[in-house]
Amino acid sequence: MTNFVVALFVGVFFGFSLNKAGLTKYNKIVNVFRFTDMAVLQFMMTALVVAMSGLYALRGLGLIEFPAIPATYIVGNIVGGLIFGVGMALTGY
Amino acid sequence: MKFILNYIRKETWSPYVAGVLLGLVGIATVWISDSLLGASGAFENLAGLLGKAVAPKLFDNMYFNFIMPPGITYGVMMFVGTFFGGMIGALTSGTLMWGKKGAANSDAQWKRIFGPQVWKRWALAFIGAIILEYAAGIAGGCTSGLAISGGMLLAPAAFLFIMGMFASGIITALVIYRKNY
Question: Is the separation of the CB atoms in B31 and A64 below 8 Å?
Answer without folding.
Answer: yes
